[in-house]
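DATA CLASS: polypeptide
GOAL: derive structure tokens

***
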Amino acid sequence: MKVYGYVRVSTAEQANSGESLDTQKAKITGYAMMQGWTVTDIFVEAGVSGSIPLADRPEGARLLAAAGKGDMIITPKLDRMFRSASDALGTLEELKDQGTGLVMIDLGGDVTGNGISKLVFTILSAVAENERERIRERIRDVKRHLASQGIYGGGKVPFGYDVVDGRLVENAEQQAVLQKLKQGRDEGLSLRKIGEAHGMQAMTVKRILDRIERNPD
């Protein structure tokens, strides 16, 4: 039996926190020693978001290619390997079908079995994905609120504005174009026709007009 470890951090900031790569490696090595196992290799995923499916990450793909029947994969925490419930459950079934074990140290053991660890794994995978979506929505809400107050909240600067001292300030030239875009829409012109009149792609016009509808001031 070969034993493989998998560790991940998404940013340099995380690398300096309690989830550093060295900390994760130590947990894997310690767990393996308690089981009487020797770790064959540890796959290190640095600077990669957990939202990317495991098989699409460079080291994740190498890990899945290396692990075979009778082998064991160890990772310190569920969120180091998965942030999507569908990715987690799909990968789990593939590993189970080929006879590869998957130990989540924070869940107490091999989650490919039929015990409580698998049940907890399934529940927490769904919870983790839901929480990620809630965080994204909160970020969007904050940015919308800041924009309504004329404060730049980061990201792409909306057409029609400039950022001056951290605040959104109307760009007179672009605001004039905005009015013409809205006028063209109100007159029933196609997005392509509106765009041609202002040197824009139809999709660019659509994106700008959609933003105006969401935030009509």
Q: What stands out?
A: The longest strand covers residues 39-46. Strands lie at 3-9, 39-46, 72-75, 101-104, 109-110, 161-164, 167-170. The longest helix spans residues 116-148. The chain has two domains: 3-134, 161-214.
